[in-house]
Amino acid sequence: MRIIAIANQKGGCGKTTTAVNLAAAIAHRGLRTLIVDLDPQAHSTIGLGLNPDRLTKTLHDVLTNPQTDFMQVIADTNIETLKLAPCNILLAGAELELTLVFGREFVLGEKLTQVSDQFDVCIIDCPPSLGMLTLNALVASTDIVVPVQAHYYAMEGLKQLLETVSIIRERFHPCSVRILGLLLTFVEHRTTLSKQVQNQMREFFGDLVFKTVVHRTVRLAEAPSAGESVITYDPRGTGATEYLALADEILNGTTRAAQEEDKQDTEDDDTQAEQAKETEYGGQE
CA 135 → CA 1, 72, 114, 140, distances in Å? Predict the structure, then answer.
């Protein structure tokens, strides 16, 4: 199961919007998809039509009670191939409870192994912080998508997040999480500022910025109030088209992170071939 965290410690950058609609887009492409709502605000849960206050079992139980199986909390959505692991405000208490647990950074990753054969892709909606919940998500994940609002202030927090990912890769084993890409969100069609920020992002981060950008649209903002993703709420609209394009960009492996991984695999194969060749010649001598 591929695990993709949607993370950025800055609030208001479109994390939940991206988590819900990217998960729905991937499910729409036919892959068995799980979205994990790891934000105590429970916006992904609400955005997919569930009432957090009426839930009897949530992600909080999964993380804090060893007896709770992950499958016990998974709920259906209006897309057959999309399932949700919901939460409510109780999840805020898990941040403190996890600090008392040995191996606390690995709790979510270990729990996700219980459902790894049930899903092809897991999308994690992270809270707007770099606390214990987000750390669990990053350690458990294979990839990170970073939504970035097309605004100057939005770029300030990127350095801290990139440094955090680097530290996680060094300190926690096995963990090979990588930045899959930066997603520009709330892009305005006509404003000069939005175009300037886009240009600066692409100049500085290059191919790490997704080709797909997400524009600010009314339908995209309306969809959560209907308890749906924009993929089902307005399937022919701009929002649905853009998130489907993002899903294709990720699934087809056209991101820079995927290209670098392929390059590394090729280099490893070449190294193994050279070693085998040297061993063969050595044996003949």
Answer: 19, 24, 20, 8
Per residue, what are the HEC states of the chain? Answer: CEEEEECCCCCCCCHHHHHHHHHHHHHHCCCCEEEEECCCCCHHHHHCCCCHHHCCCCHHHHHHCCCCCHHHCCEECCCCCEEEECCCCCHHHHHHHHCCCCCHHHHHHHHHHHHCCCCCEEEEECCCCCCHHHHHHHHHCCEEEEEEECCHHHHCCHHHHHHHHHHHHHHCCCCCCEEEEEEEECECCCCHHHHHHHHHHHHHHHHHECCCCCECCHHHHHHHHHCCCHHHHCCCCHHHHHHHHHHHHHHCCCCHHHHHHHHHHHHHHHHHHHHHHHHHHHHHC
Instruction: Answer whether 139's CB lies under 8 Å from 109's CB.
Output: yes
Superfamily for the 2-254 domain: P-loop containing nucleotide triphosphate hydrolases (3.40.50.300)
Q: How far apart are CA 247 and CA 85, in angstroms?
A: 20
Tokens of 94: 């898990």
What's the average model confidence in pLDDT over 190-206? Answer: 82
- Summarised one tens digit per residue, pLDDT across range 84-126 is 999 999 999 998 898 888 889 999 999 999 999 999 999 999 9
